[in-house]
Every structure is written in C-alpha cells, then in structure tokens.
Amino acid sequence: MASPKNKKSKMRKRQRVGQLEKAKVAEVQACPVCGGPKQPHRVCPNCGTYKGRKVLSVTAK
Fold first, then answer.
1. Which pLDDT does position 19 carry in this prediction?
2. Deepest in the core among 22, 23, 58, 60, taking most CB within 10 A?
3. Which domain holds residue 42?
C-alpha cells in the first residue's frame, strides 16, 4: 500500500472536501417567450425557443 510522501495541509484538505460537499443546484430562469421554467443557455422545453428564435418543434404531452 502506498504511503503519502508529505503531509497535506489543513487548507488543501478543506478545499478538496468543500468541493465535494457543495450542492449543485441547477439554476432555473423564466423563459422570455412563454414564461415557463428553463435552464440558462438551453432551449426552452416548453416552447422550443432559444434566444428568441424558434429552434425546436415541441408537441403537447
């Protein structure tokens, strides 16, 4: 089994562990066209628009 050559500082250890504990919450914005929820920089799943242009044809469920 390999052993660590040098001691890891408290700061380095805490930075690594802190990244693991961060909750990745997806941002949700309102679509400017239909007002439905959508993630930024993605096509709106409700109306199929991106940056005000129709990109996808969306069928009703």
1. 81
2. 58
3. 26-61
